Amino acid sequence: APAKLTVAMDGPPLEQQLLQMTEDELIFLKKRCGVKSNETLHWFVHCREEGYDTPSNLAYAWQSEFRAYHIWNHPALKNYKWMMWMDSDAMCTKTWEIDPMKEMVENNLTVLYDNFPAGKTEGRELKDKLIKAYNRSICGIHENREGYWKIIQCRDDNHLPLLQHVHGFHHITNLDVYRSHISFLKSMVGDYRFSRKWDDQLAVAIPAAMEAPQRAWDLRKHNMTWMIRHNSQYDGKDRSRMSNIAKYWVQEGRKKWVA
pTM score, two decimals? Predict the structure, then answer.
């Protein structure tokens, strides 16, 4: 059992968040969501935005905004330096022989992740946000054979970034590092509320790349193969034979791992 367990809310209810928005912000949001001025917004209304092709409901957009920006200074985490993230649909399937938190602390890592890349963000708008925050831009992130990052620098102003993401279902982050990049993260998500195009997975990648790319580690390439099951894959890499999680546990999981 954990030494200390706290159940914390990610933020106020939607109604309260909407009350904190200006009239212009609400009009813009309702337009994005295809909701008439006299209709009520709710978590599961789907909204569109320029530059992002897939409509997202407000609940999913909020979790992306929360994980990209708000989480780093959440009151529940204020006394902590390290954070291990596990999605609620990510399932452990074996005992971890190596303590990943020990690896984080001893090597002063920025991020230790299960899968990279997973998605990408590119273009002029991203470059402008990077230059505004850092007075420079990078144009690519490459993971080498040893499981560290190498940064691709921009050749010139016309060379636009294409930055790949850290898969969001499992990673461990150095909270102090991400807090020190909070100005960029606020700028990244700050054009308007409930955006989905400025992904939380991008928010994990950029501070690590700008801070110290050699301290961003891939788990498997550092002898930590966890076989975390998520979306019918192990570690975001290997396909599972069974998509149904209940059937998997009955037929395979409980036989392979007795926790």
Answer: 0.93
